[in-house]
Amino acid sequence: MHIVQPGMEIDVLKENSKIANENFRLMKSHGIKSVDFMGSIGAGKTALIIKLAEKLRAKGVRVCAIAGDVTGADDYGRFEKSGLDAVNCNTGHECHLDANLVRKSLSKIDLDAYDVIFIENVGNLVCPADFALGTDYRVVVISTTEGDDMVRKHHDIFLHSDIAILNKMDIADAVGVDPEVIIEDYRKLTGGLKEMYMCSARKDEGVDEILVALGL
Fold this sequence. Notes:
Elements: H1 8-29, E1 33-39, H2 45-58, E2 63-69, H3 74-81, E3 85-90, H4 99-106, E4 116-123, E5 137-143, H5 150-153, H6 155-159, E6 163-167, H7 179-190, E7 196-198, H8 207-213
Parallel strand pairs: 1-4, 1-5, 2-3, 2-4, 5-6, 6-7
Helix pairs in contact: 1-4, 2-8
């Protein structure tokens, strides 16, 4: 049985916040814009990052990715195969990246060689919410294949994100999901102050609008 001592969780989050701020200042000192992509396994984070990076590289923007996962190098391999420079980051047992793991990954990157760093967090809609990494933006990606109740089930990650993306719009009808239900749930949760972006990374639909939202 895992027991968390009183105050331990607060101390962990406080230390993570401190390192996240250091990560942010480090990347800014090299002129880097950074984005943390959170979302479930299968939401399409990898495909979306690859598509965003392709569009940026076509404009001469230098992009690198950090592939976060519990074990393995599958996403890292997909990044490399697409021509995107990447670093693999395994958490071992943890269900999320934290600021210290990102700091270690940044130490493996020539920060003067890139303009943008995309970080793909571990596939999870719960744990990553509490652990900022030091990025300019925190993005949550969900897909139509996950059903229309994702916002209602996972308030925290949507409230802790700057941008929300609904991916796989091209198969919404096939999986019997009404995107308007998800969008309305998000509008209610955020008081209409944030917009949910709809896209199909596979079909390159809505991706340009996401680049604009990220200031890229």
